[in-house]
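User: Need the bound-state model for zinc ion:
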Amino acid sequence: MAKEMFKIDVKAQKADAAKIKTDVLAIGVFSDVKNSVILDVLDKKLGGAITRLKKIGDFKAALGSSAFVYTNGKIAAERVLLIGFGEQKKATMDTFRQTAAKAAFEAVNVKAKKLAVLLHYEEKDANFEKLGQIITEAIHFGGYRYNEFMTQKTDEKITSLSAVIIKDNQSVVNKISKGVFAGQIIGQAQNFARTLCNRPGSVLYPAELAAIAKKISAATKGLSCTIFDDKKLAAKKMGGILGVGQGSVHKPRMIIIKYSPRNAKNKEPIALVGKAITFDTGGISLKPAADMHEMKYDMTGGAAVLMTMQTIAKLKLPVAVYGIICAAENRPDGGSYLPGDILTTYSGKTVEVLNTDAEGRLVLSDGLEQAKVLKCKTAIDLATLTGACVVALGKHKAGLFSNDDKLAEKIKSAAKETSEPVWPLPYEQVYIDEMKGTISDLKNIASRWGGSCTGAAFIGEFAKGMAWAHLDIAPVSDTSDPMKKYVQPGSIGFGVRLLTEFLRNIK
Ligand code: BES
Ligand code: ZN
Ligand code: ZN
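Assistant: Bound-state model below.
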């Protein structure tokens, strides 16, 4: 595999927009606000090119629109990239996130190595630290390209993007810089989560994910990592994850990452439990061929948990957390688990497998039991669990299920802050009842109705005694959304921002 990775770096700096040497100078423009002083100065230097572009109607500053203006040496930047902010009264922090991502996306499209993002409005009362973090995360998000299997020569292939956020005021730049620091850590982590998910199933299998988790943990102060291989899983009687993984030559792993700083504010550790099916063929209950390749993203929850552990250690958050990643490959084979098999999970509960494609809940049952063994009183699991959740919510939001209203509220607010949207769905007895077994304690599927609710209900049976929330992230595991014109199709690394924010808010 090609080792070369695409690197993105962001800084904040006091600079004069006309003098900064850069490949692309990105400038956000509101559709209903007159030009800022700085924009007017630039327009004059460019011989009125910006005004002209607006006049002929090529750029109306609608949200998500953009246009290049070539500067022909009139200012130091090669190109000006106008980015539409839409109407000022409708603007939120998310407007800045989307448009900064768009700026980076377009900059990389023209193979820019340097990008300057200009803040030029009088953003009175703005939280500049937060703005710095959001813009930085967004530059990482939009600038990201998965290209490790591209074979072009290096001079044709983009290898780095160096971005600066510029403002004409040093004390504001200092505030932005604080946010840039966090944004870099979170943005890089999220992008590596994307890379892990974008890697083909045959390249990134459970043992490989475990090796990467070990390496990341060793390189990050404050993290320690324990791996349960298949022998250890068998010794511990983790029948859920073992059952799912037994049909593959790539044996399952449970990856446990510990972060427990001395100044932790929570007495009982919080568990983040991630589904990491490195490839989900469906097993003997084989999936249809169309789109099956997308099941390399079935490890999105595990990747988010791994990379969140890295961010919280790098940010030195005062919170004790276990990351538990349930990694297995679901594959048909002479040794696969069969429909009708009854598995004994780590908890001791037995499960009749009526569909081998409902495997996420089986690996998570052992992960949640492990959280209890580690004395966690709060657990959040992330799983690309059901196609039904995609049907319910479209590819816009993750489903949120919980047995604890306070926990759900905290997750909702972190989701809102980070623009990783979630939507509440029911966790109730009627769904739990549907999962009761006839010849075993539980069965792994119910009727075809409400599939995401019954899936969540199943998992909830293994979270009793903990405040628990389940995020069904199947809707947001990847994007091919034509609405999102600022992101490369593929994994979007959902969950890293949300979980990091949730943990930052622990008091
Ligand atoms: N990994 C899939 C769910 C999925 C589907 C994620 C589409 C992302 C996009 C999961 O393991 C699965 O196959 N679930 C089944 C459950 C069913 C058999 C009850 C499903 O959704 O069809
Ligand atoms: Zn499946
Ligand atoms: Zn799956």
